[in-house]
């Protein structure tokens, strides 16, 4: 259990990732895309020293979040090449040697990406992030959040050469995620978040079976759970719609918190009225704009959300993962977010 369980009104947190140190990751290679398969070439540190380097970088990232004033911290996903590939490629049923291929999130682009190749039953042979969660728990007194790729998104980011359909594949991914979530709570996580950006990208499939897959992943879990939905990393998607194609449907999901991006797309926040039972993690930092927000601008964005969500159900965060930002920019944006939240609390 964390030692600092008291949480202020409108707490602040990351979505998940934070910029990895330049000495750890090859940022130029990293910025070429979001890997779905293993990408060991991204690390600057030799394999025999990589774990120690990742441990040290994780502590540094935790301390930066604490110095910025965040209420809920993560490990910054420092050990991951992307938000999804670390967990997905640790599962049995994924070919350890060959890769599959398939379209990216934007099907209008005629691109084929390397994807995990499903060749057998998807199972979780061992915990994947539990040890990293215990490390995070041991290195901060703050509340902690741990992220996992959601079962629906993983099913869309794979070449299926085994299952009769993608829905069946998603349900087995969900069973693996379910086992992992329970181990993460046992390791000390206060919140476990599923990243499900492809629910927005594939809304009809999400309506057909996405909610059932997420609910299966959460079955029997006892801690606080969250789900993140976005339009894609700002570095890859410059122009974003002001409305989600799939969001209000999540009211039927058993997750307690919904994380959305709102700043860059200038989201019509009236949609939040469709989620009356959920806590909302609202994005108030535009990660497509290198300019650091002022605390006053952040406060205005928070107050816009408060028109539809009471403060007891509101949490603030960046729009999405911050890993593609310069580290100094990310830190200053977080400080502005914390200051803006404090301004709103004072007014309340």
**Average predicted confidence as pLDDT:** 95
For the largest beta sheet, what order do the strands appear in spatially? Answer: 1-6-8-9-10-11-12
User: What would the principal axes of the Cα set say about the shape?
Assistant: globular
Structural class: alpha/beta
* Count of runs of 4 or more consecutive helical residues: 10
Strand content: 15-25%
Give the domain tally: 1
Written overview of the protein:
49% of the residues are buried. The two termini are 30 Å apart. The longest helix has 22 residues, at 47-68. Strands 1-6-8-9-10-11-12 form a seven-stranded parallel beta sheet. A three-stranded mixed beta sheet has the order 2-5-7. It has a two-stranded antiparallel ribbon with strand order 3-4. Strand 11, helix 9 and strand 12 form a beta-alpha-beta unit. It has one domain (27-347): TIM Barrel (Alpha-Beta Barrel). Helix 9 (295-305) packs across helix 10 (327-347). The chain has helices spanning 27-30, 47-68, 85-88, 130-138, 151-156, 166-186, 198-201, 203-218, 295-305, 327-347; strands spanning 72-73, 92-94, 100-102, 113-115, 117-123, 143-149, 159-160, 191-195, 224-229, 257-260, 279-285, 314-318. 34% of the residues lie in helices and 16% in strands. It is built from ten helices and twelve strands. With 348 residues, it is α/β, with parallel strands linked by helices.
